[in-house]
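Annex B. Sample input.
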Amino acid sequence: MDNEQIDFRDAFKGTFSGIMRWEQLDDLWQRVRDDAAGAWYLYAVGEVPPAEVVSESEVIRFVEQMDVLLRKEHEEDYCGIVYVDDISTPGFVKIFDPNNLGVSCGYSDDPPLPGWILSKLPPADLQAPMPQPGNRRRWWQRLFAS
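Annex B, continued. Sample output.
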């Protein structure tokens, strides 16, 4: 295993802050948009991890579409399914699928994997126990269709 994968896995297991309120999510998305040209990887867990960073426009499109998906499908008056390594200067964002949460909060020896990761580190394969549901795979593919 190379150092980049070790770094990604260590970062994945690191300390994260939960984005509890929708206003906090707005602030996080704005920080990501402000740094959209900052060499981000977009990883749909269960898919092959990307080897290349995405363009600034792809980061912005991802943020916009992810925001729509979360607000539409997470029918709560709070967010609570997005976690970030550093709220003021994000470099690693875990986003849990609102339709596949399991036990995403609290402690577990085998916590569920997020649905998507936005990271400045090259992702390593997290080996999801099951592939993404078909509707999520189609959403992901449409997001980056030419």
